[in-house]
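Posting for a labmate who doesn't have an account.
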Amino acid sequence: MKNFEFKNPTKILFGKDQIQKLSQEIPQDTNILLLYGGGSIKKNGIYEQVKTALEGYNLEEFGGIPANPEYDVLMEALKVVKEKNITFMLAVGGGSVIDGVKFISAAALYDGEDPWNILVEKIMPEKGLPFGTVLTLPATGSEMNSASVITRSATKEKLAFSGPGVFPVFSVLDPSVVASIPERQIANGLADAFTHVLEQYMTYPIDALLQDRMAESVMQTLIEIAPAIMKDPSDYQAAANFMWSCTMALNGTIRVGVPTDWAIHMMGHELTALFGIDHARTLAIIAESHYTYNFESKKEKLAQYAERVWNITEGSIKEKAKAGNQKTIEFNQSLGIKTRLSDYTSNYKGAASEVARRFEERGVSGLGEHRNLTPADTEKIVEMAY
């Protein structure tokens, strides 16, 4: 096991009616900016719950943060922060809204000329404008980590950043909200969380026994509850396990002391930037070819995954490893998620070389747990996913 330092300062308020406790978490003399997405929170009752809980506060609003939070929109929100002397933000939404608010949090205290440089230069903010979240869509784990991914449509870029200054102060997780989530988004949430675990697990053995078992338990739970939550989003117990699994998949707990990969995400981000494909679906597109291309370096963990998560006990290490890769494909497909790029666009030819070109242009020379995947390797992996 590797040396590590671990700190997660986010307070979690989990369960029914926790939105009512917002006033206990935010000081009364606070100028709050409430940020949300396309307006679904006004249809499912969450908006009214939040407004009621914050009655008496000085409250401004900013709606319209899109899926794959758009830089230009976030810059408009930043103007509101500065013009209205906002001292606390509340993100009400899924990962896109929360990611967007993390960027605004960092940009509000950034002293450079162009906040986009936070992403380009991979700045890790030590301090940001404080914010909390009310999670409405389990998937990304953004409610309990410091990671954020931002899109800039003008340049077709999708870049990530993180830093100790952009953890949420608190996050409200009420599984009741899952009842109003469309099936497509639930499928995306399951696939996204599952791949988050794989990126931290599917590397090579390092004798981190507890981290492996914890990662495997999150995947097993997602597999177990997937049919129930897809069939009936109002099943509170299934929703509770779904929501907490998504949070645990990426709150830092299972990554400590182990190597991590994240190449699937890096390539997936480029496919979203180029084609607008849902983030979770780009992960499903890349996963099979990534694990096939890197089979020799990953076969031990693939075989362990097959045995422990999918109960595949027969065969050699290579045979179990291949079966494990196939099970991942089948799991994504069982959610109604297609796993080839050509399933999403007829313009896929040339995508692989464009992804490689972008990595080359940014100086990205070493992806994966060994940092040895070159842009030329990513071209082959993406091409295999056509």
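Reply:
Got it, the structure tokens are right above this. The beta strands are 11-14, 31-36, 58-62, 88-93, 131-135, 147-152, 157-162, 170-173.
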